Fold each of these.
Amino acid sequence: DTGVSQDPRHKITKRGQNVTFRCDPISEHNRLYWYRQTLGQGPEFLTYFQNEAQLEKSRLLSDRFSAERPKGSFSTLEIQRTEQGDSAMYLCASIGTSLNEKLFFGSGTQLSVL
Amino acid sequence: AQSVTQLDSQVPVFEEAPVELRCNYSSSVSVYLFWYVQYPNQGLQLLLKYLSGSTLVKGINGFEAEFNKSQTSFHLRKPSVHISDTAEYFCAVTISGSARQLTFGSGTQLTVLP
């Protein structure tokens, strides 16, 4: 297993465009998290899936953000009508069923909105 | 809600010297505590975690941390650092026994000088 994969690694877009990121978790992990990290800050929680169900959303996740995990495997995070304030690193993480397991992070997608 | 404060944003230290990175947390319920390391252009990697039991926790790369409930602290220590330890370190907390998301501190940049 190669760990948590995120695609693309970098995305540059113009303000107002829509972008979509993909996360492929470790295959047997049923829980998946999205975080956002801006320069000089720790990651901030965005949303959480258990299998295909989105169980929790942060108030950071405005109406322009939507996340899906249609078959309980990979997940997508879409940002509509991007704003410059959306520029950040978007991190995905996954973990299995046991609370004693380790949370694995992907390398992230760096979004730059011009 | 829980919160994490990392008291030092930057810690420069000479190679082979000891280091302590400070972390304090706030929570009204019992918590699990974590330290993560982030190398440039990489995802976060778990260094160590405290779930229960012994308050002294040993992790990878020679790091250890001590949970102090009375002082609500979880400071990270290493007796002798290497150049390769240069990275950003994040303390994180989550509610005990839950699958809830991690709350991260703002990070401490450790720079090991030759």
Amino acid sequence: AAGVIQSPRHLIKEKRETATLKCYPIPRHDTVYWYQQGPGQDPQFLISFYEKMQSDKGSIPDRFSAQQFSDYHSELNMSSLELGDSALYFCASSPIAGGTETQYFGPGTRLLVL
Amino acid sequence: DAKTTQPPSMDCAEGRAANLPCNHSTISGNEYVYWYRQIHSQGPQYIIHGLKNNETNEMASLIITEDRKSSTLILPHATLRDTAVYYCIVRVRQGGSEKLVFGKGTKLTVNP
């Protein structure tokens, strides 16, 4: 079965640079969620989109922005990167219209800021 | 904040049943109990969810007490590949995009 695809899988950036993480949800899933997991920490919700509109927002820094496109893929844009942004970033998708609403996670993007 | 309490760690012998408890004493009537697990640095994996009835699928069984204040995830025959952090999450399911709030979870170690 198709799964959530995230790219890139690994990313190394310098401080103050920008990064773009991409997420391709499972086909026919209309909702996308982004989570951040710092070293030794549990996943923390950042932001979600339903039908291309932002549906919820967590503790996402103002330096970060995200959007969902017409094909339902999503991109997380991160600017003015800081050392503390080094983390695993997970994308999850769910089929709201289908009613199950179970979130399925991608393999994650490991971001290292030097 | 997470609405659940789980033991930080548990051990289980390979081939035996692993019973992972979760307390959610403040659960509301419209909140479901979800279980996910995360194998080292991989994306969290959905296991099972339920509202008030016991549930079973190919991965596990979920037993929810009658007052819904606690639940137990049961892995009937644990294998080494079941070593992971297991998260119990309560979540409203109302047709909206409700986020998952991860607590500390239980680190399950399956020993040979």
